[in-house]
Every structure is written in C-alpha cells, then in structure tokens.
Amino acid sequence: MKKKQVLTMTMAVAMAAAVAVPACADGEKVKITYAQWGNEVETAATQEVADKFNSEQDKIEVEVVKIDHDTYVTKLNAMATAGELPDTGIMSEAGVLKFAENGLLADISSMYGEGDAKPLDSLTFRYQGTPVAYSAANEVLNLWYNNDLLKEVCEKQGIDPSEVTPPASADDAWDWDTFVETAQKLTLDVNGKNALDPDFDADNIDIYGCTINTLPWQLEVWALSNGGGYYSEDGTECTIDSEATVEALQRIADLSNVYHCAPPVTSAANALESSLGSKKVVMATDGAWNVGTFLGPSADFEYGVGVLPYMKEKVTICTGGPNVVFATTEHPEEAMEWLKWYYQEENSWSLIEAGTWMPILDSWYTDEEKTDKWINNPNYPEHDMYKSAVVDYARDNSKSTAWYYVNGTEEFNATLDSVFSGVWSGDQSMQEAIEENLDELNEIFEENNA
C-alpha cells in the first residue's frame, strides 16, 4: 500500500545537525516564520493578521510563508533536510504525531499558564503524553435535521413533531433503539407508509428518516459510544476487532440493510448538501462546520440540531487543524507567544461568526457573555438549541478523535474505507470484513506506533 510521504528520522537527524541561524541582535525584533498552505488570497489575509500582531508589540515580527497545499509535506521534507524548517506552521490533523515521532515538534506545554483561558483538553495533540499542538478551531459531530421535511412527514403520518424532533440536550439524548424507531417513523415509501408498517415497500422509498456519515474517522464515534473504539484509550493497542466496536459499526449498516430507514451508502451520502439538502432525508450526522459552509448560507429550509443518539455512552468527537512550533526554531518562546496570540478567537472571528469554526478556548464554553457573542447571530439556529446541542455538548461530552493520540490514522482510515464497502452493500457482515482485513489493519497500526 502506498504511504503518504512523511518526514523521516534520517531527515530529522540531518536537520538537527544543520548550522543554526544566529539569533537577532539586542534591540531587534525576533523574526518568526509561519508556514501555511492557502492560496494567494488566504496567504494575504493571514499576513494581515500577522501584521496586526507585529504592530501590537515590539519584540516579534512574523512573516507568513506560502506553500502549495499539494506539495506541502514534500516541501517540508526538503526544508527539513536542508535545516530550513519554518519556526511555526499549520499541519493536517493526521500528520502531527508522525512529525512529533521524528523529533520535529516542540513541547508546547508552557504556552498557557495558570489563570489563562486554555484550549479544551480534547483539542490537545499529545505525543508520549507531551502536548505538541493545539487545534486552531474546534469541530464536533451532531445530529442535524431538515425541520421543514420533519414537519411534512409528521403531518402525513399524524405524528406530533415534538415526539420525533432530535433532543438538543445530552440529558435527553435518544438511546440507539429509540433513534432507529424514530428514523423508521420518519421513513416513507411512495405510498406514504412508514418503515414500521408491515405493508411498507422497502424497494420504493420516497423519504428516509436518517443517514449516518460513513467517513471512517466519523464512524469512530459510534465505537466509542458502544464502549469500544478503534484503539485503546492510551493509543497503545488496535481494538478495531473488539466485540463492542464491531457491534457498533454493524448497527450503522443495519440502518439501511435491515431497518430501511437510511439510504444505501454512497460517497455523496457523506455531505449534508446531498442528504438534508436533497429534501429526501430528515436527519443526518455531520460536523458543526456545516453551519458556515452550507446550512447558514445556502440551505433553503429551516434546520435544527440535536445531540447524537447513544449506544452506551453519550459522546461526540472533536477535531480541528492544528498549528505547531517546529523543534528547530531558535526562538521557541517567541514562537509560542505568536501562536498563543494567533489562537485568540478575534483573529478568526469571521469564521466563528459564520459558523464554520468553533472557538477553542474553554472560556467561550463557560462564560455566558462570550458564548452569547459567539452564537447570537443570524447564521446560527435558535440560541438555546445550539447552546445545548453544540456548545454544552462539546464542553461536557466530547472526546478527542484518534489522530490526537494515535499515529498513522490517515492510512488506517483509508484502509477502513475499503474494508467497509462490502458491509455497506450487504455482501459481508462487519465481523467478516474486519476479520478478513485484520492483519493488514494491525500491520498499519504497528508500523506507525512501534
């Protein structure tokens, strides 16, 4: 299997042996570089933020370095070999721990001190227990719904909408059986019969009650909810074949193949635009970024948001692209000072206000004034609904996605995507699919986490 190119230990050694760049003379600003993969417009916008930082203090000057997205890792490889890595930069979530393993990332545990508002703990990337990155934004998974379609189905079925509206509070979250039964009630065939009716025509479905995003990294949430997981909590063991994990993933396939309340899995089914946006699916799971990328700006229906249903544990998972301090910087304290300033919500306010990003600092989840500033705007759904279903849920029920503490998740998840395909089609059970590919999955894990 072809692996994604990563910085190697040989490169790390070569980089460490390179001649260090002299520090700035007394009285001069320390110059810090920040690498990112945006286009020209995004790079200019990032430099504007850096210029604001540069103008607000007289110790540090930040220069933004543009690297094309498609060649980002390749370029960093070359820079590492030459001993010319930037001081700081953005990374993909799945690549952080490989860089840390090769000694390329600095320990950032001193970035926040006592009394500081800190990133939520679930947004901390750790290598062997040491913080090496914080996400620049937060994103959690939720259950979203087309409220117009929900009401339409309820009217046809004579159901009170309040009985089938996804709960916005973790305290009231549906258990899995309730979720499946509700999705069946909201699933209608072309004759107007729901999926609980003995005369339901499963071959001619008009409206589906639900769909689950089947991107492998998102499916991890169901394994965790069922008391399992792709990996052990400390990241030292691959547990993809555990009974709890296999059972949870099989339940996702059963929504379509057994209960007929979800559409057959296709790549298109992974986006809210093609699920809720089709006006043929009532409820769908996906990330909070959809408020800013689809639901707020372009959805032509009233939407709502609830917490995920649960199997055994009420849990969601979070993610967010991180910034890092490269270990070879001559100015680690200044690099951390820049990133700490850059992480402040006002520097990404347009993305937060739009609903594309969620804040990372804990104060935005606990300080009512800050929370209201965040979600009291027309891009968001009703205040109390969003606060309970997204803000409070992210604060109290969120766990880190595996790439925060396990290496090689990109390759592992790409393999899972192929492994699961026969299950979605109904040709294999989840047990059969995982057992058949377990050696390969374990090999990927062990190669990346030795």
TrEMBL record:
Domain of life: Bacteria
Signal sequence residues: 1-25
Pfam entry (one): SBP_bac_8
Keyword Signal recorded: yes
Gene3D superfamilies associated with the record: Periplasmic binding protein-like II (3.40.190.10)
Keywords, alphabetical: Signal
The name this protein goes by in its record: Sugar ABC transporter substrate-binding protein
Source species: Jingyaoa shaoxingensis
